[in-house]
Every structure is written in C-alpha cells, then in structure tokens.
Amino acid sequence: MPSNAIDSIVFRDMYGTDELRAVFSDESLLQCWLDFEAALARAEAAVGLVPASAAAEITRRARVENIDLPALRQGIYDTTHELVPLIWQLARLCDGDAGGWVHWGATTQDVTDTGLVMQVKAAYAIMLRDLRALADALAGLARRERDTILPGRTHGQHALPITFGFKVAIWLAEVRRHIERLEQAAPRVLVGQFAGAAGTLASVGEQGLEIQRLLMADLGLGVPEICWHPARDGFAEYVSLLAMVAMTMSKIAHEVILLQKSEVAEVEEPYVRGKVGSSTMPHKRNPMICEGIMAEARMVRGIQNTVLSAMESEHERDWSAVHIEWASVPEASILAGGAVAHTMRVIQHLIVYPERMRRNVDALHGLILSEAVMLKLGEHLGRQTAHEVVHEASMLAFEQERPLHDLLAEDERVTRHLSTEQIDAMLQPEAYTGLSGLFVDRVAGKSGL
C-alpha cells in the first residue's frame, strides 16, 4: 500500500503524472542498473577483456522480469548493500561461466550513478516535451488576448493599463528560457559514470577509456571528463533547474489565483459542471488546480535545498550524498513534471473575462492614466511640477471618489495648457497600453522551440 502522496492510489493525480512515476519506478531503476551491466559486458567484450559469449549471455539475462524482487529486497536488508544482491542474482541467472564476468571492473557507484542519470534522461525528454507544448499553448493565449485591456498592477495596486496578452507573453518568454537552460545543461547533466573503485579505472587499466567510451555510446550518455563519484553538481544543477521551472509554474498559478479573487474576477481556472469548491459553501469556485501547482513547486524548492547539501561529499565517495539523490531526484522530477502538466491544463482551458477586465480598468475613474496626463503636462510645466499637480488632483479624486477628469478640468494649472478634449483623449486606456501588442507579436510570434 502506498504511503506517500506521490504514489497514493487516491491522491496521486494531484502530485505528478503516471508517466513520470513509471520513469522512476523500482522496475525502471533496476532495469537501468541491469542495462548498465549488460552494456559494460558488451563494451569489455569489444576490447577483448570479456568473452563475447559471456557478454551475450549477460545481455540475455539482464531483464528485470528475471529478478526475484522479494529475494532482492531481503538480500539488500541482509547485506546492507543496494547492488550486490542484484549482481548475485544476475550472475546466477547466466548459463555456464558467464556469470563470473558480471560487473567486471566496475564499482557500485558506477552503476547507481549511471542508472539514475538514465532515468533523468527519460524525465528530461518528458520535461522538454511538456514545456514546449506549454510554450505553444501560452503563445496561442497571448495572441488571442493581444489587445484585451486589464489593469497592470505594481505593489498590488493599479498602475497602468496593459493587455492580458502582454502578461501571458511574459510567462511565455520565461518558459522558453527554461527550455534553453535545460538544453544547455544537458551535456553536463546527462553524463554516465564508469571509473572503478576510487575513480582511477585501475581495474581495467589502459583499456578503461575505450570501455568507457563504448559503454556511454551504448547507453546514449555523455562520457565523463573525469570521475564524478564525489562531485554531485550534475544532479544539483538538474534539480535546481527543476526548482526554477516549478517556481515559474507557481508564479503563473498564483497570478491566476489573484486574478480569480471574487473582487477581481478577471480570469478563472478551468471549471466544469461537477467541480466542487467547498464541502460547506455551495457557491465556492475555488482555484484548486492552481493551489496544487503552488504546493508542488514549494516541495520542489525544498528538495533543491536537500540535493544541494549532497554536494558536500567526503573524500572519493560519500554514500550519504548518494542516498539523498536516490530519494530526492525522483521526487523533484515527478513533482516538477506534475506542476508543468497541471499548468498546461490551466492554460489550455483558462476562462478569461474581458468585460470584467475592462470594468476594472475604469474602477479608479481615470487614475490609471495619471502618468499620461503628467507627461503631457510636463511638456509645459516640467516633469516635477507636473507630477505635483497631477498627484494633488489624483489624491483628491481618490479621497472624494470623483473622476480624475473632473479634478483636472477644475485646475487652471492644467487647463491653461490642456483642453478638455486633450484631457479626454489622454484618459482613454486603449491609447496608453504602450507597446503591449508589439511585445506580444515579438514573443508569441516565435515558432515553438
């Protein structure tokens, strides 16, 4: 019976995806370890170190379905060693003397490190695929809402009018930067390990580099420049990138939550009949998906700190660091992948309320256009004096709940230079969204990366 939320039969869909759970399952991990042992035997056979017949037999038997999992679990408990019982089982499965060539010249951490990298490679492909799909969805949303006006908010207050497409385009640009970061990091992260007991390849001597090259080519991984048994920056970088991705998903989700507040009501996460917001308040339409995204992201951020601690590794090997990664890298991958998948669901079916956005722009009776008036008046009075005049009018408009237009029209310091028609023109939100549309075109017009 599962005992954590990620693997929960009931709650699992709130934490990650089945696709990523499969990548990091016990069966997947053991198969990666077995694939390493088989590929190592083939590489060593290619250089004449291991008989070709033995390599073929090891390859034939290196399947997780051949492994007695309960016996493996008991063996790990009895030996306190994670890999040796698997090596023993694989060796016993092989016919003839082929089993005697299993794990030749390798050390446990060669297998476990490379196995985890193989899983990360699969998760990497899923993450990049899903981020590209999310980027396409964001681009489509940005284009659709290119000219939909809403209040831009700074410090939680109305600032200037922007367009919703502009807001979404900022999210899109950030997601694309994550894609670039992941692509750039791949040659550093997706590197295998074959270095022997203390990292010097003493067990295979001069043939070591060729075995290493053949092994990594077989597994589709990069060749390490030097042993990285005690250097854990690869996994640390990967999880740090996942944390950044997850926090962007959280930022998007949080923005949807803020814009879905009852008094704002400009957007809403997907709603279908049957969705329930509260067990006691029938009217509630809560942003439950977005809250879940934020929770996933916070957990990934916490895991990042844990994985960074594994970088402090002792001497030539520190198994405490490895144990951290075994638990943390899969969790971070599953949770970050879930955050992306759930954000995709929100963006694909986001409900946008343009009429409410427009009403909110007008909520402060023109104050949102104060900068436009100040700059125009500044051409006559100078910027600082104009700021003082418009600030005074704005504060009165706010306190008296009157239109800014009326306060400006009553101030001879303004009317001496600006006509009523000019003031009217400057207080039209559509005329003061700046280059919002241009930026949407620049970002959302790009083809998917």
Can you walk me through this structure?
- The protein is mainly alpha-helical and 449 residues long.
- The protein folds into three domains: 15-106 and 196-218, Orthogonal Bundle (Fumarase C, Chain B, domain 1); 110-193 and 228-364 and 440-449, Fumarase/aspartase (Central domain) (Fumarase C, Chain A, domain 2, Up-down Bundle); 367-426, Ribonucleotide Reductase Protein R1, domain 1 (Orthogonal Bundle).
- Helix content is 62%, strand content 4%.
- It contains 18 helices and four strands.
- The protein has helices spanning 18-23, 26-46, 52-61, 69-79, 84-93, 108-144, 164-189, 208-219, 233-260, 288-309, 319-348, 354-361, 370-381, 383-400, 404-409, 412-415, 420-426, 436-444, and strands spanning 149-154, 157-163, 267-268, 351-352.
- A two-stranded antiparallel sheet has the order 1-2. It has a two-stranded antiparallel sheet with strand order 3-4.
- The longest helix is centred in the N-terminal third of the chain and has 37 residues, at 108-144.
- The protein starts with 17 loop residues before the first helix and ends in a 5-residue tail after the last helix.
- The mean pLDDT is 94.
